[in-house]
Specification:
single chain, four-stranded mixed β-sheet, two-stranded antiparallel ribbon, 9 helices, alpha+beta, globular
Length: about 270
């Protein structure tokens, strides 16, 4: 199973690598004579085109560049960026609600309490139009988020990531989507018991375990109904609220939030 990168480890490695001598051995100050770094660089063909400060301390210059690159991986979303994402999520929820309604109900069509309770197929009465529309709107909203955010923030957010609390260590694990797909294909559903799948997670670049914000889409039917978090009815989280479990496993910097067509951006 692939493990998410660990930025602090990467930063340390980059600095140590840049400061190491040939073969990974750290240079000793006793090996440097009066000409030290400058003459050492001049004897190195790799420094032939370097002048000024770059020629004197090429290793440190490269280390600084690598350190900046590694530090970027530690950067979380700033408040203004989070506010922008929340506006995107809200617009995607509204767009999905409108498009799916028009697809099934015609232009300007709206849901009603009667329609929401009506079975899609009388042979399967437990599947209502409210459920069908909700699933389609959910898929459309996620597609919208991917389309808008992927161009500028790839690697800093995840859609429907799966997390699981390790029973041996007590630590939360991020599950590789390919591994999850294989478990499902093999019918190993028991391996996913106790896992959670929030809709949208904002996290550090390349590290889905460094969570900052968590969101779930809700599409109540009719849209005027006020949505709420669900309560688990089975499994290890029985009787616990969904948002409380998200917070318990992910420890996001801000409380998990619901996004729905009639909600408002902060």
């Amino acid at each position: 199973m692939r493990t998410p990168p660990r930025p602090m480890w990467l930063l340390s490695c980059l600095l140590l690598t840049a400061c190491a001598g040939p073969g990974g051995r750290a240079p000793s100050i006793y090996e440097q004579t009066g000409d030290s770094a400058t003459n050492g660089c001049l004897r190195n063909p790799g420094c032939a085109n370097q002048v000024g400060q770059d020629a004197v301390l090429p290793g440190l210059v490269r280390a600084a560049g690598r350190a900046r690159q590694a530090a970027a991986m530690l950067r979380l979303w700033e408040a203004a960026e989070v506010a922008h994402v929340e506006r995107v999520l809200l617009e995607c929820a509204k767009e999905a609600n409108l498009q799916v309604n028009e697809r099934h109900l015609g232009k300007g069509g709206r849901t009603s309490p009667e329609l929401c309770r009506k079975p899609v197929d009388l042979k399967v009465p437990e599947v209502t139009w409210g459920m069908k529309l909700g699933e389609e709107k959910h898929a459309a909203a996620l597609e919208c988020v991917q389309r808008v955010l992927a161009a500028t923030d790839a690697g800093r957010f995840s859609l429907e990531p799966r997390y699981l609390k390790d029973s041996r260590t007590g630590q939360t694990r991020w599950l590789d989507p390919q591994v999850v797909a294989q478990w499902l294909a093999d019918g190993q559903f028991h391996l996913l018991v106790g896992s959670i799948v929030p809709d949208v997670v904002l996290h550090a670049l390349g590290n889905p375990l460094k969570v900052q914000a968590v969101y779930d889409f809700k599409f109540p039917c009719p849209v005027t109904n006020l949505p709420s978090w669900d309560r688990y009815t089975e499994g290890p989280f029985t009787k616990l609220w969904q948002n409380d479990v998200y917070q318990q496993l992910l420890g996001s910097a801000q409380p998990p939030r619901l996004i729905y067509p009639n909600s408002r951006a902060n």
